[in-house]
Amino acid sequence: MSSACSWWVYLVRAANGALYCGMSNDPQRRFAQHCRGQGARFFHASPAQALVYVEACADKSAALRRERAIKALSKAAKERLVRDFTARPAQDYSESLPPPAEHTMHELILHHYDASPFAEKTRLLLGYKQLSWRSVEIPRIMPKPDLLALTGGYRKTPVLQVGADIYCDSALIARRLEAEKATPALFPEGQEFVVASLAQWADSTLFLLAVSLAFQPEVLASRLQGLPAAAAQAFIDDRRALFAGGAARLPAAEHSLQHWPTLMQRLELQLQREDGEFLCGRPSLADFAVAHPLWFLAGAPQTASLLAAYPAVNAWLARVLAFGHGSPRAMSSAEALAVAREATPAPLPERASQWPAGFQAGQAVHVAACDYGVDPVQGELLHADDECLILAREDDRAGRVHVHLPRLGFVLRAQ
Ligand SMILES: N[C@@H](CCC(=O)N[C@@H](CS)C(=O)NCC(=O)O)C(=O)O
């Protein structure tokens, strides 16, 4: 076996004695991730303890076949593999491991501003997971030259940066944070679809309803009170432009005012149940997604009254907000650009690529949100799987970056 080979199957022993089989182009890094509870739910039941078997494969598809074959073996046959492997002379054992790849741990950098509901959702996710992060304040309206140097065109708030990897949209950021730290989970096992779908509904329907209530002319006027007239007008013009060209429409305030109590009453009834501490029993992404539009309305006296009649909703909202924001430390946008420039994008995910029909690796593409803020990101398509697209792009100020965008709610087009 030669260490020049780039794909491996491996077995990891969990603390309870069970064996986990996986494949990777860097089994030691993979093992380190498993030790942090990442990369396989298997280790949520019992933590990873030792990398006990590695086998070199000719290429990725050979590794996939071998992984399937090993997974199909009986426990006794897997134990035999481990015994024979570890019984080999020590030198042989270490020679068969690939050289450890160089991986730098980068800080989580959130580009956001205080008043943004989606930023508040993301700050609470960071608090829920008790993560440390760097906070870069971005402008509320265009232009956002430093942010766009990283994203290549995506302008919405927030954006997460990890070294030279840029994550657009809070739904994808949630998945990145789950990969960063598996517990406490945002997608509790067995509830992944329900949680993601409820969050998607809240991030779209419920959020737009809340915005239409907060942007009623007299409410908006008092929200913008204190701003010079020109700045208030610039904000209004910016938000009008934000919705140009996208599929989303703000509901008329007249409709939202009539629909709002029905939704609040449903939420109230669900939360009044004895076990109604959180929407799906234990905390999940759904709580944070439903909470941020309510936080937005609660933040202004003219709209806070829309929540007043729902005591269980208020108690639940206080519980969600009590997760706090984790440990942020300010960073300037210039520093964040320097981090991107000096970093190398992380290796691409090992998950098999799911290319959308008609697209392939290396193609020049652009990707844009479908709903609003549809400014496209252009780049070279590197990876596509069920949840995300990754584009590579070069920027004069940010260097080579990988921009990660969600599949859902975004459209990919050939350039
Ligand atoms: N689907 C996006 C929506 C983000 C969004 O709409 N953010 C608002 C602020 S809460 C925004 O970008 N407004 C315009 C801006 O900040 O420039 C996500 O989940 O991140």
TrEMBL record:
Pfam families reported for this sequence: GIY-YIG, GST_C_2, GST_N_3
Domain GST N-terminal: 106-185
InterPro entries: GIY-YIG_endonuc, GIY-YIG_endonuc_sf, Glutathione-S-Trfase_C_sf, Glutathione_S-Trfase_N, Thioredoxin-like_sf, UPF0213_domain
Domain GIY-YIG: 5-80
PANTHER family in UniProt: UPF0213 PROTEIN YHBQ (PTHR34477)
Similarity comment: Belongs to the UPF0213 family.
Name used for this protein in its record: Glutathione S-transferase
Species annotation: Pseudomonas fluvialis
Source species taxonomy: Bacteria, Pseudomonadati, Pseudomonadota, Gammaproteobacteria, Pseudomonadales
